């Protein structure tokens, strides 16, 4: 292979320039969500949209596309997992998506989703879906057009191309199969738990957990599990997230509730999981595909693994409990590590996805995955969405939302144009369990390590198998290579049956 | 006059675009100084220098200069204080400066001042001027070249054109006269105070002032004197400053010392004074000269007025003392308002400018003003600077720095290329006293208002006379129009004699 060095340098420089401006815009948005003065909003919107438009212009320059086309032929003989091949493939993939979308459409979507989020917010407050109806219809139509334009000439459906933006190369049919394999066992498990002889004492988690103490304890735990505070920071916001502002500047955000321990602590572990993935990417490839996260599903696998497989494990609490007791004294004085661990693993069907436990969470996702496919292919009308939502909740979770605010209006995603995004949450859950199984099989007794506060072997295993691979492989291939088998529901089902069966003391099949 | 509307719109849009990018860069620098992770520095420097270069390119486009030239002729018949005239004049003034500097020189200065600050920092830590010598020489040479290029064909000296960047239209000769008028009375005053019968108890300020309590109290005071927290915020940093990130987003920063009350509290009032100036500029002119601060001297007059004429006044403490007593209980239990007020006004010659009291502060500035002129005109060599510094301190303040770290190496300014900047501090001090006199004469008994916590009349007077005028007048003209006479040392001298004479109980001449 002879790679045209000049073209290679040009496309890499352009991609890095776009990333530099994107991270500038992301810094402004981080600031907006961590305490920007109220009055700053309008001007901040001007600044961010100016920068985003610049990024789009740089990324869709026709000359850029031509060079990528030529380089693409030149790297054809390389191993597709090679950094050079991955770079050209990833940049070309993004260019091919972006450049099929006329600027006018991109602008209409930007406006429609800003308006969509405002209408959604108003509708949720007023508990009145009709206030959201028109703007959701507009968003659905625009995203359908995006899907159609990108799908043109390919074998994919419009919905599948939307999904592809978040989870490259994922296919609807195989997700459908996996999700079906998961749904049955989950419904059965929830049924067994409902009738189980042993139930946890949830009130342990609703005691006095001062925000100041939570702040300190969360920071301590994030640092202990491996989040690097020299290359990141932890802040507070109303809707937690993780954002990367440079190769050594990853910001995670959480929120604390002084009468509810899990949201702050497990929320921090969740975001720290995202953050450690970002911190584990290869710095020298920052802004290019080999140094970028693979997919949202893989990203979520990292956050869920640290939140659930670690943060909700008995061995983690063998180490953490004494620290927690000291941090929150005297709140935990008459509590045992077993009691706290059981409470943190309570399973209880509920209406709100973000508050759902590990067993019911994926049922929330499967419902959304089904509904959003039907919205895009036109078999479900926006007018019929609330009824369809409520029916699905009654069928799958056994509870019917008393109002749309607690039902179809609970998530911001669709209003923001994020259609095809929800399934990545369940992909992440499946992958987290399967990756953890493989790590435990390779590394020996992880529980022993956790019980003495040693999380480094697990972090290093993930770094090697996942983080450092960037976009050199697809998510599917990463999981296959790290675990020796294709992604499936098996690990998650076995993990939940085992842990919850022990806690609730029901017969396992 | 017929103003070419299209050209007018173009130059205004360009100026606003440059400001938008400048405020983006300023936001990144604010973030850098308020908790950016250590690892983020390198990439942050890339982001900021990319943005600064864009701003420079936009501001020096030749077409921009031509349009400004044409508009300049068109607004010739307008009142020079008219917004349109001020806009064209201000933008043209900046263009004429910037465009005389070849990009290569701008880049060399950027590199030399980054290196300069690093060498300065190392030299200060090691207390070794020789580590700073070479890079200071380079900065001085480059700034001399800047001064020469801009001065070419004008009646100004190179130093005067450097000063002009910070204090437009200020002349060295008239500053020299004012500073001489100030120096004699200050030296006499300090002598009288040294021998005064009454001395304050400084230890009152060195008690236990918890940072948490200071944080809350400083915020309370900033809000009470008029800083608008809906359009600004207060944070902490190692080197306090004020920065404006948008028309309704002004950030002020302070630092707290748990065993020293004045730095946090009076520092906050100082920065709030800067902030209220920025908040008082006309928002509709943001990014254009009528909505921009007039000069650094005028800016400093606003900060010093709230720090000194208000924050060090007896009537302010009539109101603030009970609040402070509560905020810091029991620290102030056996202290009186008079005792605290006296301690806060202690005069004591010292080596460090930023810790100096109101009487000695300007002597520090006058020394620097003299030295930096001689560095630029070549009559003082960098090698001879430390000796010249020490001699001047011995002569004017009666103390000789025991080491360069506490002498010539104490300020960052010269290393950062800020030559011509120091005199604006004394201009600000003179103007603050003169403006305060005029406000008191017009508004009646300000002390009565302060004693009941009413600072609004003073703020509104400043808003009308100073803030809303932006760059429609020079600093000199602003002071003349607000106070009815040209800027002089009279008000400051009378104010210090009066206040300090009462406190220290010496005979006034």
From TrEMBL, chains A, B:
UniProt-annotated binding residues for Zn(2+): 270, 274, 300
Q: Which PANTHER family match?
A: CARBOXYPEPTIDASE 1, METAL-DEPENDENT CARBOXYPEPTIDASE
- Which reaction(s) does its UniProt entry say it catalyses? Release of a C-terminal amino acid with broad specificity, except for -Pro
Keyword annotations from UniProtKB, A to Z: Carboxypeptidase, Hydrolase, Metal-binding, Metalloprotease, Protease, Zinc
Gene3D superfamilies named in the record: 1.10.1370.30
Family the UniProt entry places it in:
Belongs to the peptidase M32 family.
The protein's name: Metal-dependent carboxypeptidase
Which source organism? Answer: Novipirellula artificiosorum
InterPro entries (UniProt xref):
Peptidase_M32_Taq
| Lineage of the organism | Bacteria, Pseudomonadati, Planctomycetota, Planctomycetia, Pirellulales
Q: How is the cofactor bound?
A: Binds 1 zinc ion per subunit.
Pfam families named among the record's database cross-references:
Peptidase_M32
- Tell me one GO molecular function of this protein: metal ion binding
């Amino acid at each position: 292979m002879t790679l045209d060095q000049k073209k290679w340098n040009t496309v890499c420089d352009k991609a890095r320039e776009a990333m530099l401006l994107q991270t500038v815009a992301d810094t402004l948005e981080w600031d907006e969500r961590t305490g920007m003065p109220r009055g700053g909003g309008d001007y901040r919107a001007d600044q961010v949209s100016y920068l985003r438009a610049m990024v789009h212009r740089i990324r869709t320059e026709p000359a850029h596309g031509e060079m990528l086309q030529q380089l693409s032929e030149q790297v054809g003989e390389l191993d597709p997992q090679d950094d050079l091949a991955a770079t050209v493939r990833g940049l070309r993939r993004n260019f091919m998506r972006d450049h099929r979308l006329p600027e006018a459409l991109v602008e209409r979507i930007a406006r429609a989703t800003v308006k969509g989020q405002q209408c959604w917010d108003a509708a949720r407050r007023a508990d009145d879906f009709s206030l959201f109806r028109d703007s959701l219809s507009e968003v659905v139509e625009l995203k359908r057009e995006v899907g159609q334009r990108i799908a043109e000439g390919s074998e994919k459906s419009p919905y599948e191309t939307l999904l592809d933006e978040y989870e490259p190369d994922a296919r609807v049919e195989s997700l459908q199969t996996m999700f079906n394999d998961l749904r049955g066992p989950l419904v059965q498990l929830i049924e067994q738990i409902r009738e189980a002889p042993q139930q946890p004492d949830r009130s342990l988690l609703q005691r006095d957990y001062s925000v100041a103490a939570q702040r300190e304890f969360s920071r301590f735990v994030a640092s202990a599990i491996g989040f690097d505070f020299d290359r990141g920071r932890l802040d507070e916001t109303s809707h937690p997230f993780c954002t990367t502002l440079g190769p050594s500047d990853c910001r995670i955000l959480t929120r604390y509730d002084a009468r509810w321990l899990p949201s702050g602590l497990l929320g921090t572990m969740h975001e720290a999981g995202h953050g450690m993935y970002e911190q584990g990417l290869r710095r020298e490839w920052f802004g290019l595909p080999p140094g970028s996260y693979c997919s949202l599903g893989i990203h979520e696998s990292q956050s869920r693994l640290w939140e659930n497989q670690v943060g909700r494990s008995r061995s983690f609490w063998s180490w953490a409990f004494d620290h927690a007791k000291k941090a929150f004294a005297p709140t935990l004085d008459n509590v045992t590590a077993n009691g706290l661990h059981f409470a943190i693993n309570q399973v209880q069907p509920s209406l709100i996805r973000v508050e759902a436990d590990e067993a019911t969470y994926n049922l929330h996702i499967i419902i959304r995955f089904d509904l959003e496919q039907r919205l895009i292919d036109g078999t479900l009308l926006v007018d019929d969405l609330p009824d369809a939502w409520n029916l699905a909740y009654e069928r799958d979770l056994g509870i019917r939302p008393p109002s749309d605010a607690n039902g179809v209006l609970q998530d911001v995603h669709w209003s923001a144009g994020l259609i095809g995004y929800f399934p990545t949450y369940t992909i992440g859950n499946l992958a987290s369990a399967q990756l953890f199984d493989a790590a435990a099989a390779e590394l020996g007794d992880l529980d022993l390590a956790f019980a003495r506060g040693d999380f480094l072997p697990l972090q290093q295993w993930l770094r090697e198998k996942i983080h450092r691979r960037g976009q050199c492989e697809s998510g599917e291939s990463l999981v296959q290579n790290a675990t020796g088998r294709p992604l499936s529901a098996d690990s998650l089902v076995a993990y939940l049956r085992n842990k919850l069966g022990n806690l609730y003391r029901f017969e396992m099949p």
